[in-house]
Each structure stands twice: as structure tokens, then as C-alpha cells.
Amino acid sequence: MSTDTAATATGQAAAGARANQTVTDELRKWIIEQAEAGCRPDDVLQAMKTAGWDEDVALDAMEETLRARLDELGPRKGRAALPPGVPVPNPDYDEGKSPVIDVDGHRVRVVMSMADPRVMVFGGLLTEEECDQMVALAAPRLARSETVDNATGGSEVNAARTSDGMFFERGETGLVDKIERRIAKLVNWPVENGEGVQVLRYRPGAEYKPHHDYFDPVHPGTSRILERGGQRVGTVVMYLNTPEGGGATTFPDVGLVVAPVKGNAVFFSYDKAHVSTKTLHGGAPVTAGEKWVATKWMREREFK
Asked: Which residues, 6+ apart, have CB-to-CB distance to 157 below 8 Å?
């Protein structure tokens, strides 16, 4: 589907509705038609924006429409379409016992634990000194953040991600190596299956709109990405400071909001590249000050 053609179709489907951004039944029908024809979500979104739709309204319309369509198709068809699950990182934590996990003498508190989706918030994963050291190491190397280019498997600047960032090689410094090994032991996943730590800085107004961390198999560039270690199966987002305002990590599918607190971290896993994992998440806009985070992604196999 070309953007021009889609934009024309969208404009026809939503005639008279854009003025007040009303999502009509005709527009919902058009969204379903594009999805069932194999159009990429990014192309559908761009077509709607070109036709005059506000991005947030367009995203909500797409999500609600496609979710309703899946419900309409029925649970049997939905189950048949699901890819098989794979093993994922999983901390040794018993809900009925101590809320503290000892990782080689470093005590990590379990602040919150959710089973579906698998989300855990850890208190004190990093010390204050480790947070400050990570910021100091990363600051001189920051550049405009990029996202995966789904068409090629490379990377590109994307308007959905308005932050500055950099990557450390795995084990690049003693501090990075220590943190990576702590995470590996905490979530029971080999350290060699982890990507390098990425550090991001979000200034006031910067955000990362809701997205999934797994690589969608429908995109042509995914096969190239998976050659380096298979799918992503887990994420740890570490907060390197406490922003003055905003910057929470949100999980829209389950209404969860995780406040960014220095030294804390949020962990979540996903056993398949599918929305059924409920791991759609985003970084809410920073309203005051800056937000610094360090992210560690885990793959199925050794990441090379």
C-alpha cells in the first residue's frame, strides 16, 4: 500500500470526520481492510496522519479497531494464529516469602510483581553511585536515539522516540560488566544472551510512544536482526535518576504505570512476538528536568 493511495482512501473513508477527529464506522472498516490486506501498521498510521488525523487519535483508533476485530473472530481462530511460546527470563521469587532477592550479596527488593503480563519492579537494583557513574560514562557519547528500521533491519531516527542515547558493548567496562552479571543472575538468563546496555536521556517534552520490544516477524528486516541471537524475550529498564516530573513507564494494555525512581528498575518478559503478551509499553513525556535510563534487552540465544 503506497502512502499516497492510503491517504486518499483514508480521506474518503473519514470524510467529514476529521474536523472533530471522530472515529467513524467507515474508518474502522477501512483500518480492518488495510490490516487484512497485509499493510504495515506504520504505513496505515502515516496515511491517517497525512489525511489530517492527530497521531494519538489515529493510534487509539487502530488499536481499538483491531482489538475488536480479533474479539469478533473468536478465541478459536485467535489461538490458532498465535506463534508458539519460548523460554523466557524469570527471577527466582516466591510471592509468599521475603520480598528481597539476594544477588551475590546485593539485595534487590521486589516492589511489585504481576503475572500476566510478567512484570516486576525492583527496588535498588543499582546503587546511587552506580547510577551516577553510568550517567558520567554515557554522557560524552550521546547522540539522537534511533529505532529499528523494519524494512532493512538497520536503524533510523524515528519521531516516536525523542531522546538522546548510546550503547555500551557487552562488558565494555568493569561497571557495565558487573551490572550485566547482576541482571543475568537476577532473571536467570545467560549474560551472553544479552545485548549491550543502552543509556538514554530524555529532556523536557521527550517521550517514547507505546511500542513492543520484540521484532515483528511480518517486517522484511526482521530475519536479518534475528540472525544475531534470535528474538528478544525480556527487558530491564533501569532508572539512573528521578526526574522532577513525568517520565513514567506505562503499560497501556493493563493500565500499569511505573514511576521512575533512581536505582529502581522494571523487568518484563514476552514469550512470543505477539500482542497477546500485553507488553505494549512506552515512556511518558518528561514534564520537568531530565530522565536517564539504562535498558538491557535479552535474546533467545547468544547475542553476537
From this structure: 144, 145, 146, 147
State how far Cα 247 lies from the chain centre. Answer: 14
Q: Is 211 helix (H, G, I), strand (E, B) or coil?
A: strand
CA angle, residues 84, 235, 294, in degrees to nearest 5: 165
> Do residues 105 and 113 lie in contact, with contact meaning Cβ atoms separated by under 8 Å?
no
Distances (CA, A) of 223 to 16, 35, 39, 192, 295: 42, 21, 18, 20, 23
- φ, ψ at 155 (rounded to 5°): -135, 160
Sign of CA dihedral 280, 82, 72, 14: positive
pLDDT tens for each residue of the chain, 304 residues long: 444 444 444 444 444 444 568 889 889 889 888 887 777 787 888 888 888 898 889 888 888 888 888 777 765 444 446 788 999 999 999 988 899 999 999 999 999 999 999 999 999 999 999 999 999 999 999 997 655 555 554 444 445 456 899 999 999 999 999 999 999 999 999 999 999 999 999 999 999 999 999 999 888 899 999 999 999 999 999 999 999 999 999 999 999 999 999 999 999 999 999 999 999 999 999 999 999 999 999 999 999 9
* Partners of 165 in beta bridges: 143, 200
The answer to whether 172 touches 64, Cβ cutoff 8 Å, is: no
Q: Contact 226/120 with Cβ under 8 angstroms?
A: no
User: Cα separation of 138 and 133, whole Å?
Assistant: 9
